[in-house]
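Contributing new records

If you add data, match the layout below exactly. Sequence lines come first and carry their own label; structure lines follow with theirs. Keep one chain per record. Anything else will be rejected by the validation script.
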Amino acid sequence: MNVMTEQINQTDEVEVRIQSCRERRALALDLSDLGLSEIPDEIKNMTYLRSINLSENCLTELPDFICSYAYLENLDVSYNKLSYLPDAIGSLGSLESLNARCNQLNAIPVSIEKLSMLSFLDISYNRLSVLPDVFNGLSRLEYCNIKGNNIISLPEKVSLLSRPKQLSILQHMERITSLSGSNSFSEDFFLTAKPHIDYIAQRLNINPIQTILFSHIVEEYEGSAISLNQIARSLNCNKIKIMQYAGELADLADKKILKTQKNGYRGRGDKGEIMYRIPLKVTEALNKNEAYVPINCANLSIQDFFALLEELFIQEVQDKEISYEELIEEVNELLNDNRDFSFVKMLKNYNLSIDEQMIVVRFCHFLVNRDEDEMSMKTLSLMFDHQSRFTSHMRKFVSGEHNLITRGIIEYKNNDGFGDKRYYKLTDITKKELLHELNIKKVCNPKDIIRANSIKEKKLFYNAIEGEQVSRLSSLLDINSFKEIQTRLLENNMRTGFACLFYGLPGCGKTETAYQIARQSGRDIVAIDISDTKSMWFGESEKKIKEVFTNYRNLVDESEVTPILLINEADAVIGKRKDVSRSSVAQTENAIQNIILQELENLKGILIATTNLTENMDNAFERRFLYKIEFQKPGLSIRKSIWQFMIPALSDEDATALSSRFDFSGGQIENISRKRTVEFVISGIEPSLEKLTTFCQEEQLSKETFRIGFGV
């Protein structure tokens, strides 16, 4: 191509750029790198421009009209052959940035003092030997690069700006990106930005190229993964140039400073393209002006291992910071770094698919970190980026055909004897195989625990004999006394558990006595309803009753003060064992009784069972209850005391009359008292003795009780 052709092409390019700027009414005009020896007159009337880039040309002077742009904010004349700047340059009252780097300037015009908005000035690598004192009047000037000159004396303002500043990591990165210009990999750029590049490289332990790439990624990053195209645009180069540095980006990922992901799940760009993301912890470190130090995931304790698992699941499921594919990668890396754990060895021995392994890990995470034994399909699905990937798993779970179910690794949650296909949990065998290192013990459901400090004080009335027995038992269960007694029993090779039976007619205070003993001794109560352990499924009832005692035993081990296991209305499980040939129900009940008998034999805590019936009690149970207290109906004098306590307004004579006429239990008298209160609230009239007598007669109508359950 001859010189004439080059000049024609150059002219065409200039015209195209100017015409394009005019048509788009753009505020920025780029005439850089065109080999211009003079500025075309065509731009003379484009006074609305706010940015003009004339860098990398062959300009020896600037025309006067360049100083007539009233709105011009940025002027770049770097890498030309200018020997001076126009005297009228002070007319550019809106100018904020002036780049005259790498020219042949011998002096700076005094009119520069009028550039009141100027904040950035680069006059490095010129032929300056002196700067006018008017620089001191540039109040907004924050950056002034004078390197590569031979200036003997500096104005105070420039001297202050030339002193090294304690910049933060992010401020150094900002300097790197702002100095990049049109060629971020040029020799001149490396020379100018060297102090900032060296600082970042040293702080983050990365090389200069990685420093430049990472600085621009930080500049572009807005929370979503960015593509090579975005990085290239920030660096003012093409994508092919950036692809040459793929190894440097991969090294940043190896150092955990960047995360990579394939597009197609989240982010922008071509599907399958490698995208780059800054981990949240890296961003947090940069904001704190700290170098990010990745956590060493090898040789962790099992507790720290699961703590890291929780962080990963929070990042993927809750914060949406990483994709499911990245989660798989992170979890696999964590497993490989801690392959000596029994948990990891057994998990690998299961030989599961990637998704199956992730599902099992998520169940283990829920149990260990959140103490949640079950998980719904909806909760499990949140781990997957795409519902379509999870749908096949969900269908197989519901149908019972999923590999994790058929192999006995995961099972349905049991709800009242039925398999609840909405919720799933690890099987007991899986828990034992995978989590034995953590010594996880399931304790009682918090809703079944009645805290001692929540029990309200209630005055109870006893006949003489039972009152003495209750008082003695209360003393024995005092915290200090109980510990001493257990120690003595242990020394004599005797069982240390206290199994107590409260029996008698309904309404005589059996259950309330257990509550008051717990309150006085500061013991929580684990209340068990035997009917909840009954299941229509063969073998399920036995499993439930075992779980009750196992959970209580674990709670005893974890509790500073031994709690009380209260089995209310235990009639159905302490009766005489039945002929198993009669029915499968009889077989199930006998199995339950055998389990309870064995648990009573090995009891280390305190059990109180209440029952209304003892005539049918199996002798084996009778022998295993250390303390048996019969609650009889209150005698005449006790009934009178209860009447007067419940209804203080009763005269001594009326209380005697009611006590003599009606052989009520304390519970029945309490019912009368409540009816009296309701009547008073409704009518506003204090019920008479006759009205109370009517209430008593009504109470007598429901003396019979009916038993419903497994009893025969």
